[in-house]
Design a protein that fits this description.
alpha+beta, eight-stranded antiparallel barrel, Porin
Length: about 220
Amino acid sequence: MRFQSLLALAVSLPTGRLVKCARTGLAAVIGVLLSQYCQAQATPVADHPGVLTLTGGYGAPYGCGLDYGRRVAKNLEATVGAGYDLSGFKAGVGARYYLFWGEETRFATFFGANVAYCAGRESITLTTHEDQLYFHDETAQIRINPCAVGRLRAGLYWQPGKRLGITTALGHGLVLGADPVQYLSTAYPSDGMKAVVATRRPNSLELSLAVSMRLGR
């Protein structure tokens, strides 16, 4: 009955006043929707500004370890982390920039940059089957000296839950200085041995998988 009374009142209004009321109501609805949208966009930053990430795989910026990220802008996170891999202990800082990021986003791509210090290792012994015809094994002993490595990376981010995230990334590093790899047992390694050593370098190709947990309320 109340709805019918309101409808009868609206019909009885002059056309000009009816249009004016409609515009006012439409503007009010749009204002409410915009305020709700802005509040929803601000929710991830306010409620989950930090993220703790456990990373594994080859060539990750901090090896197999942990990093803590802090949201400094809507799509930008600054990180600090530490870990260990075949080239020794690593620690450093970095950043991740997400594309197509939002509160309801399940998938996003990201680009990252990191600078990390690698403590190196005094001695690593490697063996390869270079000559498979005669079953000849090649053995080399190498040292990885301390160095700093800059790394660029890109990947995909999947958020199956409100706090849980899974990331896969590809990247490559650049040693900021002299070559840290030093051969101790031979001066002329084979191509096969060089390929194996390349996987131990601090600036090796990255293929990593990470699980992250967003912190906050």
